[in-house]
Each structure stands twice: as C-alpha cells, then as structure tokens.
Design goal:
Strand content: 15-25%
Distance between the termini: 43 Å
Radius of gyration: 22 Å
Strand order of the largest sheet: 1-2-3-4-7-6-5
Number of strands: 7
Number of helices: 9
Length: 250
C-alpha cells in the first residue's frame, strides 16, 4: 500500500469508532505511523472529522421524534406528513453537511496548525518507539542535542523529579520535536513503559501557538494535555486521566 492508496482508504476513517478494526484501515493507519507526511494529512483529516461531529451535535432534533420512532416500531403505523417532513429535513441537513463539509473546510484558512500539532503529538503516544531508553535525564538531553532537537528545555519542579524512561526525536513540518518519556508510577499495561509524555519544539515552528506561560488544559484524543510557552519553546505535556492528575507534574 502506498501513500495515495492509504489516503483513499482513510477518507472514510472516523476516529474513535470501530473503523480501525477494518484490516485495510488498520494497514493504512500503520503506514501513517511510519510516514510523517501521511500522519500530518491524517491529523488534519481527524481534526475535520471532530469539527464535523461538533456541527452534527448542534442540529436540533424535532420535538417528539424519539417518541414517534418508538411508536412506529411498536405499532408499525404510518407517520403523519408533517412529522415525516421534519424527519426528512433532519436527514437532508445531515446529508448536506456531509456533502458540503469538505468544501467548507477546504475554504477555511489553515489557522488550525496548533490544533493539528497537538493532535499528532497525542497520537504518537499510541504507537511509538523510543530512540533512547534511559532513566538518566542528562543522557536524554545529550542525545537530543546531538540530533538537533530541543535540549535546553526547562521542566517544572515536579516533572524534574519524575522518573524518565527515554526519549525520541520526532518531526513537525521540517522542525525537530523532542519527545521525553516519563513514568508516573501508576500500573502500566503489558509492553508499555511510559504514561507521561512531554513534547518540546521551537515556538516559531508551530503556527498560532498560544502565547502563555500558564498551562492551558485540553482533552486531545486519548490524552489530557497541558500546553504552555517559556522563552522560545512550546511545551505540550500529556497523560491519560483528568486535569487534576496532570497538575501534579506542573
């Protein structure tokens, strides 16, 4: 499978559903994990899917629709013209959103780069390989520096005291990203060595990066994230859990 074939398959992929269980989709997702350009495309596609879902949630369901469906299933009666039209109207809105969404998003300026960056970094935690495995923070900084990734990052005091497990160097549109892996001490699933991840990148490399020293919290895919800037660096810290769990390391 090449990149174009994977895109054609992933056009119908909906994150957070059973789509990932389809063998072809699974193969395309696996290719995206190895192909940075395809991963960027996939992150943008997933961001559009999430935005589209938000649009669907804004559609007001006609009053009494649920009760009417129950009555139909129980009695097999024909619905009235007025309610049939209401149901068709809702369906028409859904179809229109599906058809017009690609055109609508295509016309939007690419001002969501930071959101796509967050999404891609969060997805990396689902399947990644550490370039260096070590609990020595000095060795991690040295490895990152040799590989031209940000190594002069400043950690919050609680995170400075958290056990490291290694690091990796990732890419974001030509810029290096330092991925520093930690272990919180919570029980881990078999085969997983980290459950807390920090991503550091030069701030200028990410369009619309937030200009704040105070952490901003947001749920991104499977992670609760905290984002802040300090000096010329942008930091994204993520773990599974809620905001209270993440605040322990800030």
């Amino acid at each position: 499978m090449n990149r174009d074939e994977a895109k054609n398959i992933l056009l119908l992929y909906r994150p957070g559903t059973a789509d990932a269980d389809d063998p072809q989709v699974a193969e395309a997702l696996a290719l995206a994990k190895r192909d940075a350009e395809l991963m960027d495309w996939l992150a943008a596609h997933c961001a559009r899917q999430e935005a589209l879902r938000a649009k669907f949630r804004q559609i007001t369901v006609p009053a009494g629709l649920k009760e009417q469906i129950i009555i139909e299933e129980a009695a097999h009666k024909r619905i009235s013209s007025r309610r049939r039209n209401a149901l068709l109207a809702v369906a028409a809105i859904g179809v229109a959103l599906i058809v017009l969404a690609p055109l609508w998003f295509a016309r939007q300026p690419r001002d969501d780069t930071f959101a796509i960056y967050q999404s891609r970094m969060a997805r990396l935690t689902l399947s990644y390989r550490m370039d260096l495995t070590t609990n020595n923070p000095a060795q991690i900084r040295a490895y990152l520096a040799v590989n031209n990734a940000p190594a002069d990052y400043v950690l919050p005091s609680p995170l400075e005291k958290t056990t490291t497990t290694g690091c990796a160097v990732e890419n974001w549109r030509g810029a290096k990203v330092s991925m520093v892996c930690f272990r919180t001490g919570r029980p881990l699933p078999p085969g997983q060595s980290s459950d807390l991840w920090l991503f550091v990148i030069d701030r200028v490399a990410v369009k619309d990066a937030p200009d704040t020293g105070a952490p901003r919290f947001a749920q991104v895919n499977n992670l609760m994230t905290a984002t802040w800037t300090a000096g010329d660096k942008l930091y994204v810290l993520g773990t599974e859990g809620d905001e209270a769990v993440l605040r322990q390391y800030l």
